[in-house]
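User: Hi! I have a protein structure encoded as tokens and I'd like to know what sequence might fold into it. I'm fairly new to this, so please keep things simple.
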């Protein structure tokens, strides 16, 4: 009897070998066309955040903590300590931006965090301090003034965030703030409290509360308005011949602020309020010069066109 030749055998080892050869050639075997290999899951790596980005955000969080601490001391009736906490928050707020720019650690996250911290430290905290201190004597109007102050701070911060992304803003406007900055508004708005806690000892009586409410509403209007204020962000270099004088002046101010805190805050508040008319005048001068320059540029561009038409 003849032996029948064996049928085709399923050699899986040979198929694997052929598939490897085709894969090396850049081709797909017929088995892989119907049964493709499972895709490997791509693991997302955790990107490390550099310390130069974390450090400014830590300073911003410290400012936020100072604002919340000021609210706590105001609830406990320790208004002088609450004022010191707001001043510390303002100092930290001035440092976080400079640290971020110096370390090249600016980020969109840091800008948003800074706005939220500013709203709590310079909008909510001063409003509650003023209300717990004296505005509660006229409950409805006092709370209304506190609400308006906090809302004005929120609007001021929102407008500031929008104006940062404005590409058509002239470079000279960087010397000015549009509206009173929130940290300055917080320090200036607490003036009635300084007058009571200083050597002047202005009494905290119900008869003066309407004037205090009117003052708080005025400061809120300055924050929400478009009235220009001087900006100190461009102050970065001091002429060599004035270095000693500047160092002496800063040291003297810090010592006086530590010893006569409320009296110095009164003086600084009045000086800041006195600079507003000068800021308006300087802003209008820059705007007039800018408008004149644009007019001259338009006239110079139109002259060749007119000559070409002739």
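Assistant: Happy to help. Inverse folding works backwards from shape to sequence: for each of the 310 positions I chose a residue that suits the local structure. Here it is:
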């Amino acid at each position: 009897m003849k032996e029948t030749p064996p049928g085709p055998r399923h050699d899986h080892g040979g198929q694997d070998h052929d598939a490897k050869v085709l894969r090396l050639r850049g081709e797909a075997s017929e088995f892989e066309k119907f049964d493709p290999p499972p895709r490997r899951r791509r693991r997302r790596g955790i990107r490390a955040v550099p310390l130069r980005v974390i450090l400014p955000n830590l300073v911003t969080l410290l400012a936020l903590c100072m604002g919340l601490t000021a609210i706590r001391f105001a609830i406990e009736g320790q208004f002088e300590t609450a004022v010191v906490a707001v001043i510390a928050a303002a100092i930290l707020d001035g440092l976080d931006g400079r640290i971020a720019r110096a370390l090249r650690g600016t980020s969109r996250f840091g800008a948003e965090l800074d706005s939220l911290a500013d709203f709590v430290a310079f909008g909510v905290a001063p409003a509650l301090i003023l209300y717990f201190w004296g505005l509660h004597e006229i409950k409805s109007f006092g709370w209304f003034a506190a609400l308006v102050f906090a809302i004005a701070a929120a609007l001021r911060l929102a407008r500031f965030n929008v104006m940062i992304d404005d590409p058509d803003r002239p470079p000279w406007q960087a010397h000015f703030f549009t509206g009173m900055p929130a940290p300055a508004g917080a320090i200036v708005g607490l003036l009635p409290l300084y007058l009571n806690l200083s050597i002047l000892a202005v009494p905290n009586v119900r008869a003066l509360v309407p004037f205090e409410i009117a003052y708080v509403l005025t400061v809120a209007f300055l924050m929400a308005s478009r009235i220009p204020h001087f900006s100190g962000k461009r102050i970065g270099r001091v002429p060599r011949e004035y270095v000693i004088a500047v160092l002496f002046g800063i040291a003297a101010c810090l010592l006086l602020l530590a010893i006569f805190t409320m009296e110095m805050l009164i003086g600084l508040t009045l000086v800041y309020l006195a600079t507003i008319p000068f800021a308006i005048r300087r802003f209008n001068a820059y705007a007039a010069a800018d408008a004149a320059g644009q007019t001259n540029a338009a006239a110079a561009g139109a002259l060749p066109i007119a000559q070409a038409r002739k």
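A useful reference point when you look it over: The beta strands are 176-178, 228-230. Feel free to ask if any position seems puzzling.
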